[in-house]
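Researcher: Batch entry, complex prediction.
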Amino acid sequence: MVKHYETYVMTEDEYHTTYIGDMVKEFIEKSGVTNGIVSVVTAHTNCGIIVTEPLPCILSDLEVMLHQLVDDDGEYSHAHFLPTYGRTSANAYGHLRSILVGNSTTLSLVNGRLAMGEAQEIVFMEFDGPQSRKLFIDIIGE
Amino acid sequence: MIIDIHTFPGFFAEICQEAERVEFRRDQYFLYKQHVWPLSLFITQLNAAGIDKAVFAAEDITTRAGSTIVSNEEVKALVDIYPERLIGFASVDPHRANAAEVLEDAFIKLNLAGLKLSPAVQRFMPNDPVIKPIYQMCRKYNKPILFETGMTWVKNSPSLYSNPLLLEEVAIDYPELRMCLGHFGWPWVKETAMLILKYPNLYADTALLYFDSPKQFFETTFNGQLGEYWIDRMLYDKVMFGSAYPRIEQKRMVKAVDTLTLRPQQKDMVMGLNAMKFLGLEG
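Model: Structure tokens for the complex:
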């Protein structure tokens, strides 16, 4: 059985992180699938999805590291008008941070529960908010 | 108080119930991939950018394309949802036979705070006598006008109509009429600086971004093409913050203002106090 869902996360600031594990579990329950694979993917190229320990200090360290690695005001080629959009892109740093952390996670579903370590949580990361962000959640199994 | 004097509200869910109308807007306003999202998200974006209020302007191109891009009534509907955060500006196509009547309704019945005119998009010369009834109506009701001057990204909109120098005669003929040269008249930025320097009733906004990032473009324009200290020393009471949202995020334009050499008092004027004066919101 394959169940596909689409949902949205409303972010509140330019850089914003939010835990989405409970939301994913609700979709698992709704799907009726108890054993298989769960995939969570963001539809955007300036967001990220990671699995880490849900501690503010970890997320703070990650934020500092991403800003050290990717400068807001670098000399980016991406800073120009986009004729196919009708607007200017100036969000290269958001794209680059997204590439660094990745845009998806895949987890095992065993007997109706996500197979995760006790210290693990799914985190959605916004790098160019506030925005309404679409997520794809696919649950494959039986 | 930070006020964004120059935004376009065409893609909020509250006025985007019809898919055909959304496509019309995307096509006519040259915003092909703009997402539709709830107005509440715009308020969150204002909060994130530290902006207190924003001006939403309608766009009437009835005689050219058969409809408004955003109507005065739609602007009114949006403003009524967040009246403390939003300020509505009307639009009227000057070529409409009933232009003055439409504008008076916008001021009296819809209580909109000003008028936006887009000479290039609406294809009229600002100094054409046919526009006089519109100027007279604005003067009668003490409503300011935001002009789209300089280059517009909108297709089929020749810059011949939007040269800011065309507003000089209007400034002379209507000295009581407060007018803003949108986009700082780019690329005619020196002409714009001259006009706002000379005419007490003329203002300009910072909603200009045609190359580079906002910070880089402001650096090139305000600290290179214009004198670094011109706004701080002379034009500080004539320049207003504007973003041109949604062609660029407001948060980036707010940060771009940091590239200007402005003392704190002058920056406060640019970011909001001048707009309050322009809008007639001063005590």
